[in-house]
User: What shape does this take?
Amino acid sequence: MKKKIFLILISAVLIALSCGLPCYASNSYTIANVNDAMNFIVKHENVITVRKASLYTAEKYVGKVYLIALRGSDFTWNKEDLNRTQNCLKSGFSFNTDYLEAVKNEAISKIPEGSFVVLIGHSLGGMIAQQFSADKEMKSRYNIINTLTMGSPFVITGKREGDLHRVADSGDAVPYLSPVLVANAFLGNYTYECCGYFGNPGGAHVDSYLYAEEWVEYDCFGVKNGTSKLVF
Assistant: This one.
């Protein structure tokens, strides 16, 4: 009788574990390339997303990092929105914004001092990420490894910490929209790919980074043929 009860209990535990595994897997996420990075940003409704992740390079575990993911502009003038159009203009001229201040406050509240930090941002989000990586207070608190921007203009700032990689679709006009105009394309480690979106500015600015196969060749840091990825 005791043996039968023991077998029933073991079976129950195994069933519970087998039911739990799919749930765990469904909550995991990997950012291995630019497509993954953009989809991660779009997936979250929050303008600012902070997540702890494991960094791998060439399939070897490197260590724990914190990811800060930032959304682009919502193209409204609503003063309640951090990613409103006014902040595009301010950030483009390297001015401080409530968006940048909100990112800094979010980092301080969620990321322990001394942690390694990685930033990804689309459009305005990438501009704010560039300012964050150059902010004296943030550089003193964190070890900023890399900033990846997608479809973002170059922002003239002080010395940044970590690497900066800017990627853009060749049909995306937004990366050129900054005070340095056309010269902007050649500043700040800029890389572009022709993904078939000429004549479709909306698609070039959003869909390209979400779906174009060309961006699969760029790892989570924005390095072509790189091997770095983030796993949550």
Q: What stands out?
A: The two ends are 45 Å apart (CA to CA). Residues 28-231 form one domain.
